[in-house]
């Protein structure tokens, strides 16, 4: 095993070990008991259920990660990457066609490996704790739609990237970066209208107190909306959510039907005020710019190791190829991606606090956001006392208790300055 292989191998083992330690610490931290803030909502039975859900989910997550890692290492050291490559090369396809088939075959194998875990999580774990509403027909339909979209969108994009690196020389990384960036922006624009409705029904929110309150608040903060929609999230899960989609004049609010059923009007408006805060604070733009910068850096670094003989030797490959470089570089890039993800999650947690502050400062009943968060935690069986190390590694949002305490501080500051 050369240096490239050693870096990939030990990174895979290290990330799994860190995941194992953080998960065990998180389970231990859940024994702290119900925080005072939640006593009114979490009785002993509810808290026991939330801990059981965490325990079952954690064990399942660790087992799935161990299986994924084992399959990858077995495939690698059994020479699977080279065997698949030689098999496809035997058909005499062009490098681009061969590359699409090679990467497609690897993704298909990953899908087949992950499918039993997805089925078990949905129909056993989520069902056991009262969350699953997905029928087998909906599950299969979602899977087929996802595969079809992946083929329709993924094949042309992958072929284009391969073509750039096959033909454009030193400019390939820049062209690939620019092409993927443009397509990503286009998808952000068309997804609310053409893609998301393939999976869920978006029904315009009917006239009433909720719609009036939302429109009144949106007008107050000068946030134009092209529509407020109710999403049939209940056909898949009892969990609740809300989100914004689209850009410019095509901005939409999507409320899960489960969210509307569980919260009064003022709490729903507070939740939406938080989401609007992300737009007002430019968090969406910042995240897009950072993701595109990361993509550009990834393509540039890829160009530096393109068709590197030592990298291919690490995976026992006989022949060099652009598509092989894509796969092996993605594994080599794992430690960099891991560190970047920690930094991005740190920024995301900061953004969540800022959006909470915006909601409190612009909505007269902004502290209702704290009440909404508590109810969401109760209904979703959230972990109320996550371990700080686990939060550092995995949380894009601050722990709910910390958010609630900050919301109270923001409200006190607002009242003091009014």
Automatic annotation (TrEMBL):
Subcellular localization, as worded in the UniProt entry: Endoplasmic reticulum membrane
UniProt keyword Endoplasmic reticulum, yes or no: yes
Cofactor binding annotation: Binds 1 zinc ion per subunit.
A Pfam entry, by short name: Peptidase_M48_N
Molecular function as annotated in GO: metal ion binding; metalloendopeptidase activity
Gene Ontology BP annotations: CAAX-box protein processing
EC number(s) recorded for this UniProt protein: 3.4.24.84
Residues that bind Zn(2+): 274, 278, 352
Cofactor: Zn(2+)
Domain Peptidase M48: 204-410
Keywords noted in UniProt: Endoplasmic reticulum, Hydrolase, Membrane, Metal-binding, Metalloprotease, Protease, Transmembrane, Transmembrane helix, Zinc
Catalytic residues in the record: 275, 356
Keyword Glycoprotein found: no
Location of the CAAX prenyl protease 1 N-terminal domain: 25-201
Membrane spanning residue stretches: 56-78, 90-113, 147-165, 172-194, 214-231, 284-306, 326-347
Membrane topology of the entry: Multi-pass membrane protein
UniProt similarity note: Belongs to the peptidase M48 family.
Protein name per UniProt: Ste24 endopeptidase
Organism: Pelodictyon phaeoclathratiforme (strain DSM 5477 / BU-1)
